[in-house]
Design a protein that fits this description.
It contains ten helices and 13 strands. It is of the alpha+beta class. The protein folds into three domains: 128 residues; 131 residues, OB fold (Dihydrolipoamide Acetyltransferase, E2P) (Beta Barrel); 132 residues, no CATH class. Strands 1, 7, 8, 9, 10, 11, 12 and 13 form an eight-stranded antiparallel β-sheet that branches. The protein has a five-stranded antiparallel β-sheet with strand order 4-3-2-5-6, with helices on one face. A hairpin with a 7-residue loop joins strand 11 and strand 12. The two termini are 29 Å apart.
């Protein structure tokens, strides 16, 4: 193990105590369990939703069951897609969205005529019910995992404040010069949400205009004489032959009777009202992206305010950095590096110490030989190869998703230390924490 790169003395480093191993272990144990890992809830929801879509009976467009725009299904689909992202990145949204989708799924089962009643789709109704139940179970798993993660955050905050023994520094002395970027995703998210609302209103206006015209139109019954991929040729009772555009011509059998609405040169099937699918897709894409960006922007704003408001607790820790820039965080008395606390990837400065400029070449040679410089050992294994060990000062209260700032030894010989912000993630998340800016102290 290389000797740690020590922090030089300075106003932000002097007198800062180390994070004791026992306190750090208790903090790590207070984190969320492995069952709450977002990967499981994301995979469960993805698989169950796909299966539910595949086994769901497809309704046939008819005069009694017209295929109009499905706003109910749009909301359900949008939230289900959004949860694939929110389960991993925005558990706060999951707490609201998951129960909403579950209610929509259950309500949809009781209101779907072919599934709930067993009617024309009675043979597959049991499969559909089982698929919907699996979706609800996946939603429950995601909701419970999100609640566990948010509860663990509060537990870790309280435990850190009670046991860490950290000193405090004015936030202005630490965060001066760091960028503030929360406004960009927040503004973009609000703009996209406004576009989604506009698309929804335009779609609803088209639906209402179609309904008003249909109410004034003349109803004519006709027999299907011919059909193409986009239209139906009909024969009316008075012997006329008319052609009507159709979105689902395959739903109408040759020789069957359909009802046509006519208003001058305008005509359509009663079974196929105005389809606002274009506006619905626009609302879906912009709405999902807008909600996610707005949530991300609000979270970034909250993190920025947390770092810049009041005093910041400070503790001395170690960062063990590998050749790819990943760094595990350790307590100061964890000299054997047996208890990593979090994982980081620094993108804004080179991860090697000043006296280790040849480390990449040496590390490459070790990778070719295997561990211990013996041919063949370690081949095919993905192990943490230690390149440098840094003494750092961590400012802020750590928990999953928390904003923290690190004071690390600078690589530039003209500077003493570099201040870089990051976000805490649990080890099981597999996520890498990237700095979003840095400032230097001389």
């Amino acid at each position: 193990m290389p000797d740690p790169v020590r922090l030089p003395t300075g106003p932000l480093a002097d007198g800062v105590p180390g994070w004791r191993g026992a306190d750090a272990a208790a903090w790590a144990a207070a984190g969320p369990g492995r069952w709450a890992r977002p990967l499981w809830s994301v995979l469960a929801l993805l698989v169950t939703v796909v299966v539910a879509i595949v086994v769901e009976p497809v309704p046939v467009c008819g005069d009694a069951t017209p295929c109009g725009p499905d706003w109910y299904g749009l909301v359900q689909t949008a939230l289900a897609i959004g949860l694939l992202h929110w389960n991993a990145r925005l558990p706060e949204l999951t707490l609201v969205a998951a129960p909403t989708v579950a209610v929509l799924v259950v309500a949809g089962y009781f209101t779907e005529p072919g599934v709930a009643s067993g009617g024309a789709f009675g043979e597959v109704s049991v499969v559909s019910v089982a698929a919907n139940a699996a979706v609800v179970a996946a939603l429950a798993l995601g909701w419970a995992a999100a609640l566990a993660r948010l509860t663990a955050r509060r537990r870790q905050r309280l435990l850190f404040a009670r046991t860490s023994g950290a000193t405090t520094f004015p936030s202005a002395a630490v965060t001066a010069g760091l960028p503030r970027r929360s406004a960009y995703p927040l503004a973009a998210g609000l703009l996209l949400c406004a576009l989604a609302v506009a698309a929804t209103l335009l779609g609803l206006r088209g639906v209402h205009a179609d309904e008003d015209r249909a109410a004034r139109a003349t109803r004519t019954e006709a027999v299907v004489a011919h059909r193409t991929d986009t239209s139906l040729t009909l024969r009316t009772e008075d012997g006329r032959r008319i052609v009507v555009d159709a979105l689902y011509p395959g739903d109408q059998r040759l020789g069957s009777t359909v009802t046509v609405l006519e208003d001058g040169g305008w005509r359509r099937l009663v079974a196929e009202p105005y389809d606002a699918v274009g506006w619905q897709l626009l609302a879906l894409v912009t709405g999902l992206t807008g909600i996610s960006l707005t949530g991300t922007g609000l979270r970034a704003l909250r993190r920025s305010l947390a770092l810049r408001r009041g005093d910041l607790p400070a503790l001395r820790v170690f960062q063990a950095v590998d050749g790819e820039g990943r760094a595990t965080l350790h307590a100061t008395d964890d000299t054997a590096l047996r208890m990593p606390l979090t994982v980081f990837t620094w993108d804004l400065f080179f991860p090697y110490g000043e006296d280790e400029e040849e480390a990449p070449e040496e590390d490459a040679e070790e990778d070719e030989l295997g561990e211990g410089n013996e041919p063949g050992e370690g081949d095919g294994e993905d192990e943490f190869t230690l390149v440098s060990l840094r003494e750092t000062v961590m400012f802020g209260v750590p928990y999953e998703g928390a904003p923290v700032v690190f004071l690390v030894p600078a690589l530039d010989r003209e500077l003493a230390a570099v201040v870089a912000p990051a976000v805490v993630q649990p080890l099981w998340s597999g996520a890498r924490v990237s700095g979003s800016g840095c400032s230097a102290t001389g």
